[in-house]
Amino acid sequence: MATVKETFRMHPAVPLLLPRRAGASVEVGGYTVPEGAQVFVNVWAIGRDPAVWENPNEWFWREKSGGIAMVEAQTWATRRMSNPRLESTTVDIPSTPPGDARVPAAGAASVTSPAVLTALIVVSWYLSNIGVLLLNKYLLSYYGFRYPIFLTMLHMISCAVYSYVAIHGLELVPRQYILSRRQFFKILGLSAIFCFSVVCGNTSLRYIPVSFNQAIGATTPFFTAIFAFLITFKRETAEVYLALIPVVFGIVLSSNSEPLFNLFGFLVCVSSTAGRALKSVVQGLLLTSEAEKLHSMNLLLYMAPMAALLLLPVTLYVEGNVAALTVEKASSGPFIIFLLLGNATIAYLVNLTNFLVTKHTSALTLQVLGNAKAAVAAVVSVLIFRNPVTAMGMTGFAVTVMGVVLYSEAKKRSKVAAR
């Protein structure tokens, strides 16, 4: 089968007309099309160009200045019994220009270069991630809204609503659908792990500072390596495992020197970090086939409402009728409503900007930015909440971050060696 004059940049090759079978061996664009070969043409691009096709539904070819064109067939019987022969004449179809060349620049939009756009996305990513951490800490520890499960449920509802708007209304990404019950239950399982991780993370903010929370969160690669071995029996190189030693050693230093150390807060934060690592391993294991793979935005669209439904009975059982308490608190002033709505909106922006920064940066840049983000969040939280820190605690955090960097480099080298 030969594919002729494909414009892969914009449109995939699809047989929108009946396939053609070559009646004789010919040379087309330097390629040999053997006799009897079936040829598919990208008729979406070619067949809609009046300079090329006069009538794309007809079968016969004739030479025309500047290219080839179709001529009227005489009868349906003639078309059925004909054996059209590919001509060696080719059509010069210019390549599709890049997006910035296709869209005419106008006004302020013309000064937005790709570098500036990427910088704005990275800044938004930092602001949303740090903002949701600080707002969660303020709500749970300072404002007196001590309901982390209900708060997480609000986050999930927000993600479900905004994801629907982003995919159906704004069409940021194409909509994908759940194709089977098996895929549904896989996503449900991921939603349960997702719930557990986020609830534990929010709960930990009631008991430990944001800076310590971020230090513990930096140990995610350690738990990822453990779960990858336990679940998939995947062994890493000795260099990768050695790089995990400073990751663990740094958090031990931070824990021993944390002035506001709380055992329960520490344990639930470790559980949150482990849950995040478990989700990444299980997601790579469950949604591996091309038919079941979902874009991150589509996966969030399905996971978020499932997570909200899973959390509803838990929050009612553990925290009571929080909705009634919230309405009662709002009767004295709408500040709590604006605070919760803003918090839930930023929680969705964390996921949106994470998708955008992944799209606009390389894997290495994303890794570096992620490590720096944890450090920036820790510094900003100390400046705002004035929680005490020690030199040993800061050293431990730095050792953990350096261990993560070494781990990433070791993983990269092991992948290159495996190839």
UniProtKB/TrEMBL annotation:
Any Gene Ontology CC annotation: membrane
Stored InterPro entries: Cyt_P450 (IPR001128), Cyt_P450_sf (IPR036396), EmrE-like (IPR037185), Sugar_P_trans_dom (IPR004853), TPT_transporter (IPR050186)
Location in the cell: Membrane
Regions that span the bilayer: 105-127, 147-167, 187-208, 214-233, 240-257, 263-287, 299-318, 330-351, 363-385, 391-410
Keyword Translocase in record: no
Name under which the protein is recorded: Sugar phosphate transporter domain-containing protein
Gene3D superfamilies linked to this entry: Cytochrome P450
UniProt keywords, alphabetically: Membrane, Transmembrane, Transmembrane helix
GO molecular function per UniProt: heme binding; iron ion binding; monooxygenase activity; oxidoreductase activity, acting on paired donors, with incorporation or reduction of molecular oxygen
Lineage: Eukaryota, Viridiplantae, Streptophyta, Embryophyta, Tracheophyta
Domain Sugar phosphate transporter: 119-408
Pfam family, one: p450
